Amino acid sequence: xxxxxxxxxxxxxxxxxxxxxxxxxxxxxxxxxxxxxxxxxxxxxxxxxxxxxxxxxxxxxxxxxxxxxxxxxxxxxxxxxxxxxxxxxxxxxxxxxxxxxxxxxxxxxxxxxxxxxxxxxxxxxxxxxxxxxxxxxx
Length: 138
Description:
- The chain has helices at 4-27, 46-57, 78-84, 98-103, 123-134.
- By secondary structure, it is mostly helical.
């Protein structure tokens, strides 16, 4: 006599496989609108959360791509952002980080920057960068 396990396990395995395929398909779509990217309020990851925002808002031709390096700054990799320009990111201190002083429109110590990115970056993105820096810029 066959038990539920004989019937349920193959069905569960098949369902899990189909769900994983659907998840890859859904997650694999290309995001072109930065507003679709929502950064969590904690445990912010450079690669998963910030780099996609930078790629859609800052890393275009003539701006902060590896080739253009406007102002000597590229925002294309963790190394470029954290180590290549001293003071761009001061781990655990967003107020001293040049990056925050550029992107935070409400900062009293805001630094001048062409306004091209302001319509594409959201308050959630700004808060996400601040959180990432405050959490140690890991």
